[in-house]
From TrEMBL:
Source organism phylogeny: Bacteria, Bacillati, Bacillota, Bacilli, Bacillales
Family annotation (PANTHER family): TRANSCRIPTIONAL REGULATOR, GNTR FAMILY, UXU OPERON TRANSCRIPTIONAL REGULATOR
Keyword line: DNA-binding, Transcription, Transcription regulation
Cited SUPFAM superfamilies: GntR ligand-binding domain-like, Winged helix' DNA-binding domain
PROSITE patterns: HTH_GNTR
Name recorded for this polypeptide: FadR/GntR family transcriptional regulator
Domain of life of the native organism: Bacteria
Origin species: Jeotgalibacillus marinus
């Protein structure tokens, strides 16, 4: 159903509805969108806000404008490094795969960090942990920046140039998937506290220079993230 739009920020409201219609496969992947004139009639507006909304979809990679052939819905894949405008359209299974890869890479990275970190590395990890702790009681904050920084500092402390470069190359992808995951914790203080405690356990193991315990807690932390998102391929890791 088309929801009548208000007379303010028309292009934004149209954008939201078009994204929802694509997500719901009213306009499935590889299908051609109705013309600007047809969409304008559907939404009861002029062509201008429709054109603006479509330009955003094209810029984000969700829609492809073909010369002389109209606008087509692209197949959205997380691997395409799409921006936040299209991340919500990817399948959750792809997020599971990314978290699986993170589990493999970061479990190794934290083990190295536990034995190779400097005082400065430890201070940076603690600073990121403290920043993340501030988000626990803030129901409006996602906490993705502080969470990402915590994991990034651990990777840096591994002192392995290939791990650092690999994670660096996937920086935006990591951040987008992290935001996707953490959004589900907003408004749930108990879950956010649990995530903080998982981070704290990782930090303490690094501080104690205990690679095995650090790896255990990192694997448990990322496994819990996958389970919260519904990944049935993994089971909880008990303490």
């Amino acid at each position: 159903m088309i929801i009548p739009v208000k007379k303010t920020k028309l292009s934004h409201q149209i954008l939201i509805q078009l994204k929802k219609m694509i997500q719901d496969e009213i306009f499935p992947s590889k299908s051609k969108l109705p013309s600007e004139n047809e969409l304008a009639k559907m939404f009861g507006v002029s062509r201008a806000p429709v054109r603006e909304a479509i330009s955003v979809l094209v810029a984000s990679g969700l829609v492809e404008c073909r010369q002389g052939g109209g606008n087509y819905v692209n197949e959205v894949s997380l691997v395409n490094l799409l921006d936040s405008a299209t991340l919500e359209m990817v399948s959750v299974e792809e997020v599971y795969d990314l978290l699986e890869m993170r589990t493999i890479v970061e479990t190794a990275a934290v083990s190295l960090a536990a034995t190779r970190h400097t005082k400065k590395d430890l201070a940076n990890i603690k600073m990121a942990l403290d920043e993340f702790s501030k988000t626990i009681n803030d129901e409006q904050t996602i906490g993705d920046e502080a969470d990402f920084l915590f994991h990034q500092e651990i990777v840096n402390a591994s002192k392995n140039s290939f791990i650092i470069q690999t994670v660096g190359n996937l920086r935006e992808l990591y951040k987008q998937a992290l935001t996707f995951s953490l959004k589900k914790n907003v408004g749930h203080k108990r879950i956010r506290e649990q995530v903080f405690q998982e981070h704290l356990s990782i930090y303490e193991a690094i501080h104690l220079k205990d690679p095995e315990t650090a790896a255990f807690h990192m694997k448990r932390h990322l496994t819990n993230a996958r389970i919260k998102l519904g990944d049935t391929r993994v089971k909880p890791i008990e303490l």
